[in-house]
């Protein structure tokens, strides 16, 4: 008879502190960018902790790091739990690290309790989720889901000028003790714990979010062209002002898109007027539009609304509009079976939960293409993330780890 | 008995061509920036033309160039007519050049007709009106009105790295034949012919604008600060989006300020969102606001409207707003006496005219501080200026010169 499995909360919190020290910033955050020396140090520490517990350690050609605890049927594909260890340049202590270290805690807890799982359970730390040093993000999980490394990645350079392939080779070489493994081997499922990176769980005082999928995202690059002219000499009637046209279109969109649909997201993150003189009506204004929605058809109709708003207001102001779609990621629903086992775990543990859709990208988005997958969210203070002030209450970190353990025990076919 | 004074249109048009060749650009414009070799060549050509006609040539310490035709009472302050010879880097053939060469044509016409004026008449070409190579603009007329060179000008560097004081010294030295003259000597009045740099005369098919003053101008630098957050994870209710706040304020202002008052001008020439990521709600948005109006009290009330719009909409979006005034130029009314003599000249010549306020700065704005001054505008095609496509119909250039001549003959106390 095995003892009941019980997450060691103090150990998890200590691990979070220990890893936050690797790349710690003076302001209390973390700067541990993909494939940099701090990232390598974090991989090395996790590997040594794993080897102490007798777990096997693997890395694939993308430097995705796997820590394996064998189960009853070791010829069957493992069940994967984890997240990433890299951070934004002024990142926080929890984004990625919580999901990775909680997954390691699950392995240790299973080991402490001497529980033999049906299939092997493996912790994974995906390479370069953030994409801040080397773009694109989620390289590790994307290549894993593809089963190969896209050709055009080889010449990628980082923001620091480093060649991605050199940084990758150095990272792989720094961990010779890890056993090599092919890219994209079969897995039985994937579950990722992550901080919400938004405020809704905290505001509603709910400790657990069960993530049913990832929103679809579209990026539009809009340029409205009018006629540059003198700010002082040009009367209203003679203006073809692209800034006035953009303002009018955005006003319409801000007033309609999000107020009419709580699942819709409309964000203007970038805007510039050319030539950019205080005393000249701009000749053109360019801006980015980020649209998100969990449903593909709603995303279509919002995009149509955006096009119409800019076309109408450009026409009204004697301007022309050019709209290009620069990114289009379809909504990705997660596995119903994995979601149900997570719900069952929450009920088992008596933890209040709600279903939610992830507004951010995650490694799970890519892994879901090749295996049943889902995610668990826990609240973070003020919804802050990608920020040195990122903070998760200790009880929420522990509750997340408990959910991860219980779900791992409950997942069908695990 | 002297023959009637008659502008030599062909000669004026030839002069415009000859000077447009100095610094000509392939696209048909002019790049003759202040104190550069082309500017020096233009000064040299004008000087040689003046000496051929027996006029005296002077330059003051700012390299303002004066060409004098004596009158009956040469101990009295001269009446000044002119403009500037420098251009924008991709400027046109008429901005400044028309007013300068038409003034020279007035001197030649007076000479041809052997008219003896009561006071001396002098053509002036002010140094660096444009301010595109060396900022600020209107240095020549500003220093003339001050009677000294501001201390902080000495270390000004040009966009090409040149020291202003070196370029000035080289320009002065290049014209040793010009007699030196102190800065800011007494003058009896000033009249400047200039292209409108706006479309209203052309659209209304009126050849002459009589400029009653220069608008007041205020520049505000507005920063709205909210909370940077993830574009995908942050629901509307939790957003403190400075871009939404700015849009709402600008919408209100575009809908009210200019539509309610045809003399008001509101221009947003510069805008930027920080951090400027496609997928992040910006933490702050900064923009410039250029406000103009011929009446000081209206300018005050429009500024109050702008402040209120940003404060209200920032509050509505949970943002803060910071507004700094970076430039404040009071409206400058021109001399009633000079305006009246210009009106009389238009009636005398049978030329349709309208009164207008200049939306742009001009040298006349500074000269008006020390002497009775006014301006005459002629139409330019499509209102285009500061543009290589700048164009003035020959008959409008000639009509402008005729007005300048007739007004010079009519100015009281001239």
TrEMBL record, chains A, B:
<dbReference type="InterPro" id="IPR036264">
    <property type="entry name" value="Bact_exopeptidase_dim_dom"/>
</dbReference>
<feature type="binding site">
    <location>
        <position position="194"/>
    </location>
    <ligand>
        <name>Zn(2+) 1</name>
    </ligand>
</feature>
<keyword id="KW-0862">Zinc</keyword>
<feature type="binding site">
    <location>
        <position position="84"/>
    </location>
    <ligand>
        <name>Zn(2+) 1</name>
    </ligand>
</feature>
<comment type="similarity">
    <text>Belongs to the peptidase M20 family.</text>
</comment>
<dbReference type="InterPro" id="IPR002933">
    <property type="entry name" value="Peptidase_M20"/>
</dbReference>
<dbReference type="GO" id="GO:0016813">
    <property type="term" value="F:hydrolase activity, acting on carbon-nitrogen (but not peptide) bonds, in linear amidines"/>
</dbReference>
<feature type="binding site">
    <location>
        <position position="95"/>
    </location>
    <ligand>
        <name>Zn(2+) 1</name>
    </ligand>
</feature>
<feature type="binding site">
    <location>
        <position position="386"/>
    </location>
    <ligand>
        <name>Zn(2+) 2</name>
    </ligand>
</feature>
<keyword id="KW-0479">Metal-binding</keyword>
<feature type="domain" description="Peptidase M20 dimerisation">
    <location>
        <begin position="213"/>
        <end position="312"/>
    </location>
</feature>
<feature type="binding site">
    <location>
        <position position="130"/>
    </location>
    <ligand>
        <name>Zn(2+) 2</name>
    </ligand>
</feature>
<protein>
    <submittedName>
        <fullName>Allantoate amidohydrolase</fullName>
    </submittedName>
</protein>
<feature type="binding site">
    <location>
        <position position="95"/>
    </location>
    <ligand>
        <name>Zn(2+) 2</name>
    </ligand>
</feature>
<dbReference type="Pfam" id="PF07687">
    <property type="entry name" value="M20_dimer"/>
</dbReference>
<dbReference type="InterPro" id="IPR010158">
    <property type="entry name" value="Amidase_Cbmase"/>
</dbReference>
<dbReference type="Pfam" id="PF01546">
    <property type="entry name" value="Peptidase_M20"/>
</dbReference>
<dbReference type="GO" id="GO:0046872">
    <property type="term" value="F:metal ion binding"/>
</dbReference>
<keyword id="KW-0378">Hydrolase</keyword>
<dbReference type="InterPro" id="IPR011650">
    <property type="entry name" value="Peptidase_M20_dimer"/>
</dbReference>
